[in-house]
Structure formats: structure tokens, C-alpha cells
Design goal:
145 residues, 2 domains
Length: 145
Amino acid sequence: MFAALNRSAGPELLSLELTMGQFKAMATLTTNGPQPVGELGRRLGLSEPAASLLVDKLAELGLAVRERDPQDRRRTLVTATPAAEELAARLREGREGHILAWLGALTDAELDGLTRGFRGLLRIAAALDVAAPVTPDDAGATHIG
């Protein structure tokens, strides 16, 4: 399923003129918000100098800016630009559209089975402390969107 989802997003992703590292950095910024270069590097498994070079390239592409932290003027934060936010939203919407179309094509029995399977995965993830604790609303959700 993940491979099919990636294939469906392929044309849009391939049209981007970003390296995988640049894409991951942009996605990290749009998902997690402004952060110091060192934190971005840790999230991506990069040294601070490598992360700084990556941020420089994102800035050249108009996808990130360095700004002073309003809480601590000695610190600089990397922030996604509106262009990066719009690109990330467009990619997410495309992916969500594919998933909703696939779910809409399932029979009631298939959708019920999928829902039960995901509830089981949530239970196991919560028991292993892999994900955030599962709330009753999360475990009982039967709709997407």
C-alpha cells in the first residue's frame, strides 16, 4: 500500500527540484515548526554543519529562513516559508485525496476489517509506548477525514 501511495505521488514529487535531504528538511520544518539548526540536524541525523548547509540551500530555494528567536535573541531559528508550507500542504492534499478515493472504493466489510486492523495496531503501539497514548476517541474512530 505504501509503495502504491508513493507511486501515486511520484509525478508531483519528481517534478520538485529538491534533493531527498532538502525535501526531508522542508517536511520536518513544516511538520514541527521553527527550530534551531542543531535540532533540525538531530531530527535528520545530520551534524550541525551539514544541517546548516542544508538550511542555506533551502533559503536559496525560498523554502526556509533564519530568524532570531523572539524568546532568546541569541538563538537563531529555521522557519519554513509560506512557499514551503504551501508546497507541503499541496503534497499532503494529493496523498489524502488518493487515500480517500481508495477508502471510498472499499466494501463495508473491507472497511470494517481495515478499521479493526488499525485499532489493533493502535493498541499494540500504545502498549509498546511507540506512539502517543491512544485515547478512546482514537481507538473508536470509524471514519477518515
